[in-house]
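haha ok so turns out i had the wrong file open the whole time. this is the CORRECT one, sorry everyone. sequence first:
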Amino acid sequence: DIKMPDISGIDFLKSLSNPPMVVFTTAYTEHAVQSFELDAVDYLLKPFSLSRFLKACNKAHELYNLRNQKQEAKNDFIFVKDGYEQIKVELSEIMYVEASGNYTQIQLGNKLVSSRITINDLAELLPKSDFIRCHRAFIVPKNKISKFDRNQIWIGEKIIPIGATYTGIQLT
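then structure:
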């Protein structure tokens, strides 16, 4: 819950060094953006229906499975859903990842893969040692960075912005 007697749910989540998957339940809409910035799985407005609650539970279950897939993977490829198919994506071929509306687009050299996976969920699948989140809408592979400054990263000729909340990231 967001509003609790001694500490807010947001502050409690921020205090955890290794936070679990969280679904916020609250009567207040004003904390939704902040909760998703903290990687909350979902945000339920009270009163909510059983079907809405089950949707949040299913989302958490899918994320749990994705995280387990990452731990079991050899970290050289992942599968992402594209329509009704699972597409194999070689990590070495990823040029950059971009969130675009309800889709996440994975640029692979001259091929583009679009998936309904969220950029947060995809970030969980990618090895943090090789990929970096530089903006709320972008993830880049460290080995494809040709140059960078305080505000942007170059992947060849493609310029990727560095978001204000990501200015302190370590690119090396």
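Residues 9-72 form a domain with the Rossmann fold fold (CATH 3.40.50.2300).
again sry for the mixup
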